[in-house]
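== Folding the chain ==

***
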Amino acid sequence: QAAEASEGTFLVQDEGSQLVALYADASGAARVLDVCAAPGGKTVAMAESAGPRAVVVAGDVRRRRLRLLRDTVRAAQAASVRVIAHDAAGGLPYRDLFDLVLVDAPCSGLGTLRRDPDVKWARKEDDVREFARRQRSLLAEAARVVAPGGRLVYATCSSEDDENAAVASWFAASHPAFRRAPPAPRWLEPPLRELLDPDGSLQTSPERHGLDLFYAAASTCWAAYTLMV
């Protein structure tokens, strides 16, 4: 199995994390941006979904994370992926040309307590508020590079509403060029339908689904329609 993994036959990835890439739904997207891409599992999954003619830009800021990202992309032989060093918090060096942008935001990680119980000792109450502030900043920056008609997907592995629904609600209220996007049709059928909140966002649960807690919400950029009015 180790040899097969090194040859890109498969990648090891948490099931909840895989569901985020499925929820993002890169099928049909010609240009995809994974803003906080390392270690690269979601990047590779989106590249597979988008197809070989798509261009997938995968970025991160820290050197160690970039090395890990490059290793994952190389092992998966994902030829459509371009790995880029960028500081999303300082301003993304792109234009509004991406059909799909995923912000898998740095977060408290409190949704992974089931398999990483020590994380609770590394977090303080103020940390969640600080993560939420950074997440709002990242989303605002990512919104600038979504093409008219494109999708922006926000995701975390946090259990805290302050980092999940509250950030999504803030974005909806402060970015009128975007509207909450419904999930792809496959999500309206079981068993995927059971993973959705009433507003169409993804939220897995250790208690209900036997999965780590992942959250994702999608918005569509309607700027083209706004300009036509």
